[in-house]
Design brief:
Elements lengths: L1 H7 L5 H7 L6 H14 L7 H17 L5 H13 L6 H19 L4 H16 L2
Helix pairs in contact: 1-2, 2-3, 4-5, 4-7, 5-6, 5-7, 6-7
């Protein structure tokens, strides 16, 4: 339906036309046609790692603008780092450090200011990658 609406608005490509003609049960074909249509329109899908890094940057920005709680941001970023297809020793180390810091934040309330500072420092390192 979205493909048909795009065609109605004047967005057009061969794969988009095919996509608009598919039925609801053509899920497998739809995924491939969607990727082709996006590429034809000049917007190829990003890799999973590129999406993960964009999400990491977004969470980091929310953390530094105080729109995300430090332990939650640490856990979310760690999970994204662990899910990278092209991780390395450094990203693995940073992910582990964030998990430990998140646990420390929960387990040692008296040390939270120092733990938050360590979370911010670690996330700063990640932003520089």
């Amino acid at each position: 339906m979205v493909a048909a609406e795009a065609l109605a608005r004047g967005v057009d490509s061969p794969a988009l036309r095919e996509l608009a003609g598919l039925g609801r049960s053509d899920v497998r074909e739809a995924a491939e046609l969607f990727e082709r249509a996006m590429a034809e329109l000049g917007h190829p899908p990003r890799s999973k790692d590129a999406v993960a890094w964009a999400r990491i940057r977004d969470i980091a920005d929310r953390l530094f603008t105080r729109r995300a709680a430090p332990p939650n941001a640490a856990e979310d970023i760690a999970a994204l780092l662990c899910g990278l297809a092209e991780s390395d020793e450094r990203t693995d180390d940073l992910a582990l450090r964030l998990v430990v810091l998140s646990d420390l934040w929960l387990d040692q309330p008296a040390d939270r200011p120092a733990t938050v500072a360590d979370i911010l420092s670690t996330v700063s390192e990640i932003r520089d990658l």
